[in-house]
Amino acid sequence: MVEANAVLGVSAVALGMVLTPGPNMMYLVSRSITQGRRAGAVSLAGVAVGFLVYLAAANLGLSVVFLAVPGLYLAVKLAGAGYLAWLAWQALRPGGQSVFAVRELTPDSPRRLFSMGLLTNLLNPKIAVMYLSLIPQFEDVGAGHLLAQGFLLGGVQIAVSLAVNLVLVLAAGTIAGFLAGRPAWLRVQRWLMGTVLGALAVRLVTDHTSATLA
């Protein structure tokens, strides 16, 4: 039903997005550094619920809309490519502070950590673009079971994102200490992420298979 190429494609997109500094990464890393791994894990649980909310909303309504109005899908797809290009520039431009910089934050309760993780993810524009534009292009209308495809591919994205974020939560303090005195490594990180995102943006713009995708 879902081809291996689609799973690999979603995995690559999800990996590129999760490795790009954004609201989720900044919140999880900052909490893990200042309040410990347990706090980071509780925050990540909130982020996970946010992913599930997006997954359900996107698959229970947006697929039907895209099938009925193909031009709308094309517009959203181009918007997604534009946003990826903007993220690539943000990663490559000079200046900016690393997400692993140590910051002073007031400790929060587990309930607040969870709710802030959830809210941060729900308000994260990267995740909205992921579910509205990027994942749908890997769904094949001709293969049928569009709803099942959406949930399966969305589950792949969630698995990749949570796995990477869990590693960041567990290793945030170590990574922060390692990068503190190594600005060259930070530049390599930024250039790598910017290149991946730029390549994904070009792929979206040059892909001409939108007529069979939703």
Instruction: Tell me the Rg in angstroms.
Output: 18 Å
Strand content: under 5%
Number of strands: 0
Task: Report the uncertain regions.
Answer: 209-214
* Global shape: globular
Structural class: mainly alpha
What distance separates the N and C termini? Answer: 15 Å
Average pLDDT figure = 77
In sequence order, what are the helices and strands, one letter per element?
HHHHHHHH
- What is the count of DSSP helices, taking H or I runs of 4+ residues? 8
Question: What's the helical proportion of residues?
Answer: over 70%
Largest sheet: none
Condensed summary:
The protein is mainly α.
Description:
The protein is built from eight helices and no strands. It has 214 residues and is an all-alpha fold. α4 runs antiparallel to α8 (183-206). The longest helix has 35 residues, at 146-180. The protein is globular and about 50 Å long.
Task: Write the topology of this structure.
Blueprint: H1 4-18, H2 23-35, H3 37-68, H4 70-92, H5 110-122, H6 125-134, H7 146-180, H8 183-206
